Amino acid sequence: MKTIKFGIIGGGLMGREFASAAARWCHLADMDVRPEIVAVCDANPEIIPWYTENFSSITQVTSDYKELLANPEVDAVYIAVPHNLHADFFCEAISAGKHLMGEKPFGIDQAANDKIMNCIAKHPDVLVRCSSESLFFPAMQRIGKMIEQDAFGRIIEVNSGFLHCSDMDMNKPINWKRKLAFNGEYGCMGDLGMHACHMPFRAGWVPQDVRAVLSNIVPERPDGQGGMASCETWDNATLLCSATDADGQSFPMTIKTQRIAPGNTNTWYLEILGTKGSARWSSKQINTLEIMEYNGNEQAWQVIDMGHQMAHKSITGGIFEAGFSDSILQMWAAFLYELEHGHPISRFAGCVTPLEAALSHRLFTAALKSQREKSVVEV
Predict the structure, then answer these.
(1) What is the pLDDT of residues 70-87, one digit of tens each?
(2) Per the confidence metrics, is the pTM higher than 0.85?
(3) Which of 59, 196, 198, 287 is the S-S candidate for 321 at Cβ 3.0 to 4.6 Å?
(4) Fold annotation for 134-318+352-378
């Protein structure tokens, strides 16, 4: 089995998720390539012991990402840092010849994303992908197959979203995601939007225009020093788009991202309504897919238990439910499979491409203009 040696730049929550996935790579049944964590970089020294205590393969620990990128032992990097650092960190990694999985939104704003895209174009031999796990749940994989089989007919409407309640507590101290300098003006769209866009964009459903309603629900939060600090970014966003499919047919598509969503801990959802069939799924009932086929008779939703039907086969029995850790493992399997074989195992089992990330920037930039002007804006 081929080994790809990885460095992690930004060792927080998602860095640990990747490292954990690498540690249980044996859970995957048919992979011919595997990751090995050999280097970790983080400005916070308190983060490092978790890595060094759990991964004997780590030979480099540093607080300077440039040192990690200069390490010839590192083949690829996962970069999970605040949005304002994406352009510089990503471009330096790509220029150093390191294959890159970068966190969303792939740049703090349109200009930063343009810089990243220009760098990618100059280094075609480097694989660059954006992180999003939403496509890799079994129900989403099934929906992808339905799209390939034209099971929906003409699309009538699509609704996609990612809702959670991480900021429901109004006494939660402010963090970098509530500050323009670090998170950017996109707010929740930049932080959450790629999850909601991944499947529609992969399906080829392209937003042509957008009417956005953005909300800053909690304008101030404790600053951690006994005072209050202004919350500068959007908490919630609802985007109503006119989208087109590959045949140029138009339909309404809503994309919703919320940090303050009562009743939702961390919920992905997707609903597709079509002339031949419809489907809907929510991670609230992660193992359940609802499908409705139109055959001239009475309309009725069919409920299907998905089980562990993954794109990349694992040792888990097919009757068992999938969870978030499984989707993380599948996303990383998709990245390494594409790195080794030059293509995803299937159309709907590939990580977010730079072109898809760039489309999200055009959408979110248009949404900001729509909010300011209270108008419909072309994407």
Answers:
(1) 999 999 999 999 999 999
(2) yes
(3) 287
(4) Dihydrodipicolinate Reductase; domain 2 (3.30.360)
